[in-house]
Specification:
Layout (H helix, E strand, L loop, with lengths): L1 E5 L6 E3 L4 H12 L5 E4 L5 H12 L3 E5 L2 E5 L9 E3 L4 H14 L2 E5 L10 H8 L4 E2 L6 E4 L5 E5 L5 H10 L6 E5 L6 H13 L3 E3 L2 E3 L7 E3 L4 H8 L4 E3 L12 H9 L4 E2 L7 H10 L3 E4 L11 H11 L4 E3 L3 E4 L8 E3 L4 H12 L5 E4 L11 H7 L3 E4 L1
Parallel strand pairs: 2-15, 3-14, 6-7, 10-11, 16-17, 20-21
Antiparallel strand pairs: 1-21, 1-22, 3-5, 4-5, 7-9, 8-9, 11-13, 12-13, 17-19, 18-19
Helix pairs in contact: 1-2, 1-3, 1-6, 2-3, 3-5, 5-6, 9-11, 10-11
């Protein structure tokens, strides 16, 4: 589905949607807990539903009604369940260790770019504790119950590997994750620690103790990641916690760094590049470092952000370990989203500040994380036609 976006600067205020990063974790903790949990989550996305679907396949009972997930925990795992992770990397990497901790044999499937996204270090760590994989990439079956203890893996590849192991360790009697390199995206691991703490599990220096105990009701945080696209346009997004562990809460700080001409290090918050690149193009230009892991996201985000900026009339360059954006007015053009939700949202915002209409091709991919994006875009004054 293509969207023709007309020049119309965004203004006004909207409420933040729930953080899918937080909801993934809360759903898993609830499904592994001792009794029913209600999770207040006024909006859902395809990725959130993928995690709920996988937990249901493992035996949880999950209903969503009137903005609330009602989760009855897993009591008995069906024989040889199949977990459909959709296109959600978080779902796959979180559910792999969890399933291997409670099921003798589980089949994992996915689509889009997910089969090509790496899991090598997580796979090796799980295999060292008894899990067996039928193939190197999706689809595959994981067999053999995983044991607990000490898991060793690098900290500079994906924090999702660490989160998946931490979530599984209470099911294995506890244990610890030891990192061989410094931890990147530490904010996401902190989100995991806080989510598990709400369910009675202690995580201290990546050592896990305790069992999941339901708090009864929890509230998902507002999502800084998706709010960033409207924040860089000058709109107000309410319902965001400045003290949140979400790394993308530094959006205002990073905008200020760009305004001062400083290089922005995205090592801990790589997903901010699409939004910040648009901000740099519209205002002050800028340079970004710590971008290497963006090549293995829903798209090669170095390539697709560069293409997005240039297709809208800007000037962006891939400098290898760095990425630069020139400050020059966006004129408009045709942007291919490459089925990447963050590219679609960034392109829509950039197009709204162009001098001519633009076309955002495949703009429905926002459903992965923000199904209501186009509605909120219109509420803030954005103008578009669906082609």
């Amino acid at each position: 589905m293509d969207y023709k976006v007309y020049p119309a600067p965004l203004r006004g205020s909207i409420a933040a949607i729930p953080s899918k990063s937080d909801v993934h974790r809360l759903l898993i903790c609830a499904a592994l807990s001792d009794k029913k949990t209600e999770i207040y989550c006024p909006a859902v996305s395809e990725d959130i539903l993928a995690t709920a679907r996988c937990l249901t396949s493992l035996g949880a009972e999950i209903q969503y009604k009137s903005g609330v997930f009602s989760v009855l925990p897993i009591k008995k795992v069906p024989e040889n369940p199949t977990l459909d992770c959709g296109e959600s990397g978080s779902t796959l990497r979180f559910m792999l260790p969890v399933a291997a901790a409670i099921s003798d044999s589980t089949t994992f499937v996915g689509r889009g770019r997910l089969p090509a996204r790496p899991i090598g270090e997580l796979k090796s760590a799980m295999e060292s504790h008894g899990a067996r994989f039928s193939a190197e990439r999706l689809p595959f079956t994981v067999s053999g119950r995983m044991s607990g203890g000490l898991f060793t893996l690098p900290g500079n590849v994906s924090s999702q590997y660490i989160t998946g192991l931490l979530l599984a360790l209470p099911l294995l009697g506890g244990g610890k994750v030891r990192l061989t390199t410094p931890l990147q995206s530490a904010s996401y691991v902190e989100m995991t620690r806080r989510a598990m703490a709400k369910f009675g599990v202690r995580v201290d220096n990546l050592a896990v103790s305790g069992a999941y105990r339901s708090p009864g009701r929890v509230i998902a945080e507002g999502d800084w990641s998706n709010a960033a696209f409207f924040i860089i346009a000058g709109a107000e997004v309410t319902g965001l916690d400045p003290a949140s562990p979400q790394g993308d809460r530094v959006i205002y700080d990073n905008m200020a760094k760009l305004d001062r001409g400083e290089t922005v290090d995205l090592t801990d918050t790589p997903d901010m590049l699409p939004a910040l690149a648009i901000y740099a193009a519209m205002h002050c230009g800028g340079e970004f470092s710590g971008i290497e892991r963006l090549r293995i996201k829903e798209s090669d985000r170095i390539l697709t952000v560069k293409s997005m900026i240039n297709s809208l009339g800007g000037a962006a360059r891939d400098l290898g370990e760095r990425f630069s954006v020139e400050s020059q007015p966006l004129t408009g053009g045709i942007c291919e989203c490459a089925n990447d939700h963050r590219i679609a949202m960034a392109a829509a915002v950039g197009a709204s500040f162009g001098t001519e209409p633009s076309v955002v091709r495949g703009g429905e991919c926002v459903n992965k994380s923000y199904p209501g994006f186009w509605d909120d875009f219109r509420l803030l004054g954005g103008r578009f036609d669906v082609l």
